[in-house]
């Protein structure tokens, strides 16, 4: 696996005048969390119900970056939208600062000022008729109305996002900017409200490789300077390695492995995580794992372990030799705790049996 990027980007934002860096040391209690979260959608013209999020516990502590990774369609964007209050859970709960999220208009407006979204496509999220100044000031006007320090707040946000001198960008339009600059404008639009949490959905997916490192370094600098907490939604495990403190791997509506990025990505325990890592160019494997078929339809989640129909460990006979093949096909491994005591957790009968065997052998 490649080494992490330097936390200081080439065009990283300057700290606030007179402000001390907030640091990234996470606190013990979660800032944002969900417990036993379920989100379902009824299919159009049918009785089928898609279980997009099917039982998830996830905690984000203040000052940490958590990467939520998985294939397209695994439910990670729906989970992120639910944490933002853009989707209402079918059951379960979302908590912020230990209090349950309310869904009244007033409660959501107050919440979204403190928890901001950064979208993956800056071209689609920026109005081509709005100047950079208006794009960044929009959230400020919605949440705080006309303020005497609006131009200073906009300038500060642009500067922190690496667009300096900020006044040079005030009257420019999105089409006059590069892709990396547009993404920085989107980030500035989130920063102008001085949020405590940002949720970034594939924040560098639409950018050239040469620009991705700058944006990832910017997010790290914002965490270190401002103490921002971030949930980064991505299908790219390489990105997770470079930016995250912890990683949660999601498959078919549920988190199947969670732990520190070093533990999960250096020594993956779930066969799904192993398969995702095996296809990275820097992976130290003889040959990549090719998963059979496509992820199951979320309206027809299989019994037992939801990964068993595609599992290379079950197909190879390893699960049978470990004595857990029947459990893989019939017994649900269950919902993982939010982050428990910090140890890596895995929803896999084979991995858990192997852990017990290794523990007994070393005792």
TrEMBL record:
Keywords: ATP-binding, Nucleotide-binding, Transport. SMART domains: AAA (SM00382). The keyword Cell membrane does not apply. GO terms for molecular function: ATP binding; ATP hydrolysis activity. Residues 32-277 form the ABC transporter domain. Residues 1-27 are annotated as: Disordered. Residues 18-27 have a biased composition (Low complexity). InterPro entries: AAA+_ATPase, ABC_transp_ATP-bind, ABC_transporter-like_ATP-bd, ABC_transporter-like_CS, Oligopep_ABC_C, P-loop_NTPase. GO terms for biological process: peptide transport; transmembrane transport. Belongs to the ABC transporter superfamily. This is Peptide ABC transporter ATP-binding protein. It comes from Nocardiopsis gilva YIM 90087.
């Amino acid at each position: 696996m490649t080494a992490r990027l330097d936390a200081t980007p080439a065009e990283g934002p300057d700290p606030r005048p007179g402000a001390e860096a907030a640091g990234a040391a996470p606190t013990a209690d979660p800032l944002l969390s969900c417990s036993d979260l379920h989100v379902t959608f009824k299919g159009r013209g049918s009785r089928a119900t898609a279980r997009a999020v099917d039982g998830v516990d996830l905690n984000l502590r203040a000052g940490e970056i958590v990467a939520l990774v998985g294939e397209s369609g695994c439910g990670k964007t729906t989970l992120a939208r639910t944490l933002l209050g853009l989707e209402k859970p079918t059951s379960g709960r979302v908590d912020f600062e230990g209090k349950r999220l309310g869904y009244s208009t007033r409660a959501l407006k107050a919440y979204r000022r403190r928890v901001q979204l950064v979208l993956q496509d800056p071209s689609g999220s920026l109005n081509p008729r709005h100047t950079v100044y208006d794009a960044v000031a929009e959230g400020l006007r919605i949440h705080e109305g006309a303020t005497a320090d609006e131009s200073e707040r906009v300038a500060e946000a642009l500067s922190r996002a690496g667009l300096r001198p900020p006044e040079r960008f005030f009257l420019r339009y999105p089409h006059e900017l590069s892709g990396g600059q547009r993404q920085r404008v989107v980030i500035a639009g989130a920063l102008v409200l001085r949020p405590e949490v940002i949720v970034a959905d594939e924040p560098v997916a639409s950018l050239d490789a040469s620009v991705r490192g700058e944006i990832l370094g910017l997010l790290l600098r914002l965490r270190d300077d401002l103490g921002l907490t971030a949930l980064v939604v991505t299908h790219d495990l390489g990105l997770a390695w470079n930016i995250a403190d912890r990683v949660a791997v999601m498959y078919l509506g549920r988190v199947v492995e969670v732990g520190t990025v070093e533990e999960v990505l250096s020594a993956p325990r779930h066969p799904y995580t192993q398969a995702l890592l095996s296809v990275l160019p820097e992976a130290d494997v003889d040959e990549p794992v090719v998963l059979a078929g496509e992820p199951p339809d979320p309206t027809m989640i299989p019994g037992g372990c939801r990964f068993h129909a595609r599992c290379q460990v079950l197909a190879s006979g390893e699960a049978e030799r470990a004595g857990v093949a029947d459990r893989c096909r019939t017994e649900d491994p269950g919902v993982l705790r939010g982050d428990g005591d910090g140890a890596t957790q895995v929803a896999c009968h084979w991995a858990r049996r192997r852990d017990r065997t290794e523990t007994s052998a070393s005792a």
